[in-house]
Design brief:
The structure holds three protein chains of three kinds.
Chain A (H helix, E strand, L loop, with lengths): L16 H23 L2 H23 L4 H6 L2 H12 L6 H14 L14 H12 L1 H5 L14 H10 L8 H4 L4 H10 L4 H4 L13 H17 L6 H20 L7 H6 L3 H8 L10 H21 L6 H18 L12
Helix pairs in contact in A: 1-4, 1-12, 2-4, 2-5, 4-5, 4-6, 5-6, 6-17, 12-15, 13-15, 13-16, 16-17
Chain B lengths: L26 E2 L5 E5 L9 E2 L6 E2 L4 E4 L8 E2 L4 E10 L7 E9 L19 H10 L24 E8 L8 H24 L1 E9 L3 H13 L5 E6 L8 H9 L14 E5 H13 L5 E7 L7 E6 L4 H7 L9 E4 L6 E2 L13 E5 L18 H5 L6 H9 L3 H6 L10 H5 L6 H52 L5 H23 L12 H15 L4 H10 L1
Parallel strand pairs in B: 1-14, 9-10, 9-12, 10-11, 13-17
Antiparallel strand pairs in B: 2-8, 3-5, 4-7, 5-6, 7-8, 13-14, 15-16, 15-17
Chain C lengths: L1 H24 L7 H8 L13 H9 L12 H12 L17 E5 L9 H5 L5 E2 L7 E2 L19 E5 L15 H4 L1
Antiparallel strand pairs in C: 1-4, 2-3
Classes of the chains: A mainly alpha, B alpha/beta, C mainly alpha.
Amino acid sequence: MSVLRASSPHVHSPAAVNKVMLQVSLALVPALAAYTWLFGWGVIFNVVIAATTALASEAIIVKMRGREVITSLSDGSALLTALLLAIALPPLAPWWLIVVGTGFAIIFAKQLYGGLGYNPFNPAMVGYVVLLISFPLEMTTWLAPSGVRELSLSFSATAAYVFGGHLPAQTAIDSLTMATPLDTVKTRLGLEHTMGEILRSPVFGSIGGHGWEIVNGLVLLGGLWMLFKRIITWHVPVAMLGTLFVVSGLFHLVNPDHYSGPLFHIASGGALLGAFFIATDPVSGATSNRGRIIFGIGAGLITFIIRAWGGYPDGVAFSVLLMNMAAPTIDYYTRPRVFGHKGSH
Amino acid sequence: MSHLLHTFPGGLHLPGNKDMSTGTALTEAPIPKRLIIPLQQHIGAPAKPVVEVGDSVLKGQVLAQPEGYVSAPIHASSSGTVIAIEDHPVPHPSGLTAPCIVIETDGEDRWIEHGGNPDYTNLDPSDLRNLIRDAGIVGLGGAGFPAFIKLNPGARTELDTLIINGAECEPYISCDDMLMREHADQVILGARIMRHALHAKQCMIGIEDNKPEAIAAIGEALDNLDEKGIELVVVPTRYPTGGEKQLIKVLTGKEVPAQGLPIDIGIVCHNVATAASVFRAVDQGEPLIQRIVTVTGHGAAHPKNLIVRIGSPIKDVLQAAGGDNGVPYDLIMGGPMMGFTLTGDELPTTKTTNCLLLATQKDAAEKGPVRPCIRCGECAQVCPALLLPQQLYWHARAKDFDKAQDYNLFDCIECGCCAYVCPSNLPLVQYYRFAKTEIWSQEREKKAADKARERHEFRQFRIEREKAEKAARHKSRAKAVKKDSADSDKKAAIQAAMERAKAKREATEVQPKNTENLTEAQKKQIAEAEARRNDPKTQSAGQASEDKE
Amino acid sequence: MLEAILALTALAVAFGLLLGFASVRFKVESDPIVDKVDAILPQTQCGQCGFAGCRPYAEAIASGEADINRCPPGGETVILALSDLLGVDAKPLDDEVGEEKLKEVAIIDEKTCIGCTLCIQACPVDAILGAAKQMHTIIESECTGCELCVEPCPVDCISMHTVKEDLNNWKWPYPEAGEKKA
């Protein structure tokens, strides 16, 4: 028998890529469940359609590239991309939107670069940004969370909307949807409202917006669990959220009427999801711990800049992608001092 | 006994699995029927045989002498007859053959006459080194670097620290542990001798804290021998603490410079087993002909440590340890992190064979699917050399060796931490080994090419020169008197030859040749000729030539 | 209109002068390309490329007359290094010049050798030792394995032998990339 490798070491830690991907996916489940609970069946459609599209497009491309389909699908990376995209998309999205986003993420942002490990950008965020730029209307049509919203859609009604674009009779889309907290802030600040006035709007809960704060709380929980399981390191989340907190806090102190508070920044939008699940993506992120801190600081800063002064209500996706671009440079300049060498490099 | 400890970067906490083989006391493996003793068991040039096939040899007799400075002699590990000097498979990752001396043992185990120098302090350090060199002692920790070289402080008048390495960080292996438990005094006394040879200011023995029995034994031996100059330092268990550079960092806080040696920072590091062998060589005059080998793994029926004669076939060693337990296994020489698989059990044990691991599926990870690198950076977190293993991997994989060297490929100690943690299951260390051997090979080729270029250019120059000389001769010949030019040339040549012959004759005394079986008439003729020849010669010239003789 | 034309012309002249100045002022003196190419070639001097040695081939490559894939002893390594140096695409070894094979050395069967010196004259690196009517022998460490001595031998006493792999020149194999299939 020869179970052994040609070269030592002959023992191996239990770590494996597919295990990591699976654990990250598991960490998302509570947040996804809450998202479904609060925003309706549409989330389930997001997940199912995104996962199917991701696995199918991955299989097709891998097959076309002449690689082993099973090995590729079983690494779990396509599934994780699908889940991340599903939780980032609006809870009531037409099927084609999900298919286009996921397909683009897997085919263009991942496989065309060479598949897992070779993509310079986080595929889920590429898919998300492509949709945001191409279909701004669909991407900003958000269901209001239950509790704020009077109507709720049944499973079949949701299916009819997702696949056919029909809503039940006498239901106008406007009666279901509502701007997201960050969107509200952006729009109304533009109308010269003060933060104090804006925060009285029903969409805002105690910290980050009604409903959203629960979802984000569970994202945080999932993130902490990943930290505990040592799937991710603390560097990126702490640096990114810390920067966002400090910078937004400074501006809030100077002008509380015009800048929302730091807690709101952390708890709303995609900040937590981005910090724990997206910016920690090893493939497209920085590798060393020092590099990860720089990466996180950059991502936090850009997120705040876009939120405060940019054209989009949230900036997490853009900031991560921009920092992805900088990752190789960060890696280059954060090379550790090799043992026995003087100075750097 | 509180000693300020430092840490080295990276490293791993690995399951030790050492208890498996430490339950039974050391036993001596029987004399095998046949000893297969490779001529190269050390770093450096192979030794050169000084015995011939058919010679009978005694235990401890020199079989092969070192060639050059970095080399070591080889001794017979039992008495018997040399039956072959031939290529034989040797334990090496390549599975290649190498020259070996094969001895058929006679079972009598008769020693060659030998004696020690119990009072080594009278010996000059240089004599001590020669003694250690002649005993064929090499680093027993794994690398097999000739020990006497590392006992030479060189231009330094004194050395700062001598470190005796009893860390034994690699899982499963327990040969150093057992040596320290049972022969702690030999280790201490060996360390004393080494310290004397080096004039080291201080001496430390570093042992990982997972070996309490060894620590106790060494502590006791230090007390019994009333040795105050050697400090026992217990270091935390973390792989690869036993690496020379890592242990030095832990004990002294100093970093051995890259591409440098510990001696550059005033430190020398020797393994505990090397120290014990030095003691036996100096005290009893016993060359390095045996060592302790751990036989372990879930495939071994009775994992234990054995004292094995160097050159014993692995098969005999396994048998002496009680054989396997029927579970299919792979044979690894060394530990699971740095050892290599063996192609069979006909191979001999060598000076650097510290462990025979009968690895079953319980011991070794299954190959599993290899996936692409996801740049998770785990490898960089555990690298004790602070390298970027994934960068090295990319460049080695792309055969971009210049880039790999830019990322300090040659600072890699091949400890295997990176490959151990790699979630993509990449054979990282093999990529580095591939790149290293490929770079060495390219350097050899480059040297050969440079030499060939030089030789080719010289040949072209020579051909040109010959052509030019020929042309010049033609020219001068044409210029000379046209008629009879050939004749005069010939005459001149003959004249010149005669003159040369004469000069030669005059310079040396011509000895008569073929003077046996001559008739009296012939002898007379010769005498006359001799007289004629000597006649014109001046007395002084004759005198001079006689003086020369 | 006129101003625009004048402005653009002035700009063009100004930048042209600047570039011209820069090219003169910052001219980089580099090793002649021939030397760099020659340094990469294996110096076997075998002539399999169709040139009379490595240097002539290097000159031909430098002047663009010959392709970079005509050196069988150098094989893939040399082609890659040349493509890197010259910034051209690497391509597989030209079939017509031969195949890449393991390094060989020539060995003279000393019993058969008649001492004709023909091989000595053929050897490009003077690696054959001998004189007329004396047995010849090859200095193995100097032999480049060019095979040029094999042909001239009238008694066919020279044969090529692959250099044996031993512990000191053994190379770790490239890991069989299970990943490639993945």
